[in-house]
Amino acid sequence: MPKQHLSDTRKISFPLTTMAPSTTATTTTTTVLLLFLTFSLLQTTTTAELDTTSDCTGRWIHIRKLPTRFNLDLLTNCSSFFPLYPDFCPDLANHGLGPKTHNHSHSWYRTDPHLLELFFHRRLLEYPCLSPHPHQSDAVFLPYYSSLDSLRFLYGPDYNSSHLHGLDLFSFLQSNDPDIWGRNNGHDHFLIMARTAWDFSQPLPVKNDEENERLWGTSFLMLPELFNLTVLTLESRAWPWQEQAIPHPTSFHPSNLGFLDSWVSRVRKSRRSSLMFFAGGGGTSPTGNPNVRRSIREECGAVQNSSVADGRRFQKLCEIVDCSNGICEHDPIRYMKPMLQASFCLQPPGETPSRRSTFDGIIAGCIPVFFEDQSAKNQFQWHLPPVEFGEFSVTIPKEEVVFKGLKIVDVLMGIPRAEVRKMREKVMELIPRIMYRKHGSSLGLRAKKDAFDIAIEGTLQRIKGRLNDVSAAG
């Protein structure tokens, strides 16, 4: 194995020091200018020179050219909402992957999931089947950074008009080359929303009702004008057809096949000295309603001094890393090493059912334990096939844990060792599917479909099916 690949896996032991990227206005302006120049050059190249080696039948995508107020201008406002919302200027590095965890890292970054829109746009510029012709394309991508634009409605001066979020975009689509949208009434258009769908699902106000209750979020997904869009989110609701959840980006973004293979080799060789592990907040209040996070903390507290169960010995039966108040968001150092050492990673729902930690755990080869189907099985069908869920995960109904006293340790210890080994191998098979490889990665790594590739395939299939349905109905 090449020496540089081994060095990359060693670096994930993580130094205790952290980098402090500059957040000066000069750095921010330079970053945005570089992004703008790169995007412009790449888009010119990829749309002028169409791919001649790939079979692009049914796969052509046109990137709609939008005014910069819908994307790049939003990046220049990266510190505008501080202290109400964190300054995300440092996180713009590496086209939205964030700064490296440390100077010598090849594959690990301090990635903010809310910048997936920026990174997804960057990756799409490398897509082999881009077309400059919207009317001859199978899908049209809108490079609209909706999550960033929502900040002015959530924290800025437009706070009381969040029901208008999205109308400016629709107005542009209607007025600028309206035939592009009108050809299929938007059924062939898609975009990314790097938040949960719940953040964009505030009910529209009722006319002449002065007592409209203002809930959290904007009304983007409630606008009838945009119902025909296909929307990729970090978490979808259960019913709307247009939403599809795609994996939260983790901090692992390898650039070549050697870095991926060496990491998977480390995951396979890692000694699982803990039975189960939980990284997260919540469940600490002595009062309030019973919930699964509190039950997890109580059970972990009860078994923390025990290391033996049913004859099997672990250094720890349960370990917790407290991620309250967002302290783990840009710091994989806090949780990746204990994930590598754990056999099972507990993934209880929080404010919403799904969690980024699910994908962090899979990257670490830690078998996920879910407490409701909405956490993953009903969310990420493109990337985590529901028919295979029992092969790589464990599901324990939260009601059994919270109200009937079922012990998680007992369930996990009841799984035969051979079955645990098979499940972990299946988890490792999923690593390429749920990671987002770095832009500009090697041809060898591009041969493996990652989360982006699978999301694009799923989107094209969904749009094709929707157009067929519309055609049949018409």
From TrEMBL:
Residues 56-403 form the Exostosin GT47 domain. The keyword Nuclease does not apply. It comes from the Eukaryota. It holds the Pfam family Exostosin_GT47. It is a single-pass type II membrane protein. It is found in: Golgi apparatus membrane. Coiled coil: none annotated. GO terms for molecular function: glycosyltransferase activity. Keywords: Glycosyltransferase, Golgi apparatus, Signal-anchor, Transferase, Transmembrane. Its main location: Golgi. Belongs to the glycosyltransferase 47 family. This is Probable xyloglucan galactosyltransferase GT19. It comes from Spinacia oleracea.
